[in-house]
Each structure stands twice: as structure tokens, then as C-alpha cells.
Write a structure and sequence with these properties.
It contains three helices and 16 strands. It is mainly beta. It folds into two domains: about 55-150 and about 260-275, Thrombin, subunit H; about 150-260, Thrombin, subunit H (Beta Barrel). The longest helix is centred in the last third of the chain and has 10 residues, at about 265-270. The chain starts with about 20 loop residues before the first strand and ends in a 9-residue tail after the last strand. Its main location: secreted. One of its GO terms (molecular function) is serine-type endopeptidase activity.
Length: about 300
């Protein structure tokens, strides 16, 4: 169920170790016509400094050019869309983190050591399971401007008409330019039936849609892989997957990979790599083997 949260940033003082798998309970949280696989935000506004400390830029290593959005799961793992990385080698990619301003010569850039594309990814079937995990070569240091995103609980539904926020550096319109400052836009979630009707095709249960009925706001090329967040929280409910072009064209909302449908796969994949941090922020818990260490 989609709920609004007022969510504190993770701090070690809020955590308590419990059991061999280490469940760390947060002490203070209060509930308050064409497919395109490249998916700036249309009619967005510039994000406030530090507003989305988990959003990172997936780049082509050789040029330093922004390619897709992504989100930090912990010190060693990043979440993005499968179509952003399928066919690439780890050496061809890197990630800029800790800044909302894109810069080819950014100081905070980390290399990728492994790419994990969902085994059920089917680009020919409406981009089913369009999700991938990137394992980082070196651990990033968490701090005020570098934070993990919160995952929903497994199979957690998101109700139609829920308010959501999309963040990214994508084009401001089809044929536009990549934005140098991180953008955000408020959208609404559509029901599965309404979304399928609008797209005139049966979408998968593991996909969700968001936009506005009148069009004119939403995702565009360069936003792919980035997060759709439950408004008022750090909970990522969707990953930008595809949309009908031109961008934000009515009556077609953008299509996202539903994160809650893939939480178990994320946990299994991250947990299988025992040499890295395997904790994840899921719902009200931090689940993992290694507690996060944050810098001041």
C-alpha cells in the first residue's frame, strides 16, 4: 500500500543489530504510438540541494557523458534499468555521485565491476523486468549528500492516484538537451487497467505507470533507469523504463518497472556477493550483513 512518510536520513545511532542477518530497525520514521527504451524530465523544476542524495548519473566511461539515471542502494550497489546497461561491459560505464550537477570531470566518480541484468528481462515483451544492478569497484562513503534509497517491501502495492515524484537529468522535450542540474516533477500513479487502456496494450503486473492525464509532464530520454518516488518519502516505487514519443504526449503515461515486484531478486543478488556490503533499506528496516558506516 502506498503511504506518505516523513523519513529521516540513516544514521548509525538509529540502528540496533539483531540476529545473524542483521535487521536494523529505524528508530524514528513517521507515516505521514512507439515504445522507446531511452527514457530530461518534461516541465520539471530544479531539485533543491541535497533533495535526492541517492540519485546518481550513469555515464559512458570514455566520454563522461550522462546516459541514464540510477539510484544508490548502499555503499557498493546501484539500481538502474536493464536497457541502460544491456550489452555493455563494466569497463564502459562509470557513475557520478554526490552531486546534482553533471560534470564530465566530476571529482566523485566510481567505476563498475559487475553488471547484473534481471534474468527475465524481455525487451521485446514491453520491456518486462527492465531492471539491473551494478556492483561498484570501490565502496562510496555515505554522508549528507550521499545516501541510499529506500526500497518498498516485497509486493507492496501502489494505489492509483498516489502522488509520486520523478527525478532525473533527461531531455526537457523530444529533441531537447540533457539538463545539467537535476530536475524533478510531480506525477500521479495510474491504475494498471487505466494504463493498459491508454496504451492499448496489456501491460505486465510488474509495471506501473505515472504521468498526468492532460500530458505535458513526465519522463524523456536520459531519465531511463532513474527513480519514481512515493511523494513525501525516500521510497522508490518505480524505475523509468519506456514511454511513447514525443515525450509526455497525452494520453500516454510513462511506464516504469515496479520496484516492489523485484525486491526479492534485489535481495538475493546483493546477498550472493558476500564480498560487498549487502545491507538494504527496505520499508522500515535495514536488512543485511554489514551495518552501514556514515561519515559526518
Amino acid at each position: 500500500m502506498a503511504r506518505h512518510h516523513c523519513v529521516p536520513r540513516i544514521r548509525t545511532s538509529n540502528m540496533a543489530l539483531c540476529g545473524p542477518i542483521c535487521l536494523l530497525l529505524m528508530a524514528s520514521a513517521c507515516v505521514i504510438g512507439v515504445f522507446s527504451d531511452d527514457g530530461k524530465i518534461v516541465n520539471g523544476t530544479t531539485a533543491s540541494p541535497g533533495e535526492f542524495p541517492f540519485v546518481v548519473s550513469l555515464r559512458r566511461a570514455k566520454s563522461g557523458h550522462h546516459s541514464c539515471g540510477a539510484t544508490l542502494l548502499n555503499s557498493d550497489w546501484v539500481l538502474t534499468a536493464a536497457h541502460c546497461v544491456k550489452g555493455s561491459t563494466p569497463q564502459q560505464l562509470n557513475l557520478q555521485y554526490g552531486s546534482q550537477s553533471l560534470a564530465r570531470n566530476a571529482s566523485k566518480v566510481v567505476q563498475v565491476v559487475a553488471i547484473h541484468v534481471h534474468p527475465g528481462y524481455e525487451p521485446q515483451d514491453k520491456y518486462l523486468n527492465d531492471i539491473a544492478l551494478l556492483q561498484l569497484k570501490d565502496s562510496v562513503v555515505l554522508g549528507t549528500r550521499v545516501q541510499p534509497v529506500r526500497l518498498p517491501t516485497p509486493e507492496q502495492p501502489t494505489f492509483a492516484n498516489s502522488s509520486a515524484v520523478l527525478a532525473g537529468w533527461g531531455l526537457n522535450a523530444t529533441g531537447g538537451v540533457v539538463q545539467q542540474q537535476l530536475q524533478k516533477v510531480q506525477l500521479q500513479v495510474f491504475s494498471d487497467d487505466d494504463c493498459s487502456d491508454r496504451h492499448q496494450t496489456q501491460l505486465h503486473a510488474s509495471q506501473i505507470c505515472a504521468g498526468v492525464p492532460e500530458g505535458g509532464r513526465g519522463q524523456c530520454s536520459g531519465d531511463s533507469g532513474g527513480p519514481l518516488l512515493l511523494a513525501g518519502s525516500d521510497t522508490q516505487i518505480g524505475i523509468v523504463s519506456w514511454s511513447v514519443k514525443p515525450c509526455a504526449r497525452p494520453p500516454y503515461p510513462g511506464v516504469f518497472t515496479e520496484v516492489s515486484a523485484h525486491v526479492n531478486w534485489i535481495v538475493e543478488t546483493v546477498g550472493a556477493a558476500a564480498s560487498t556490503s549487502s545491507w538494504l533499506w527496505i520499508g522500515q528496516l535495514i536488512v543485511g550483513r554489514t551495518p552501514p558506516v556514515l561519515s559526518p
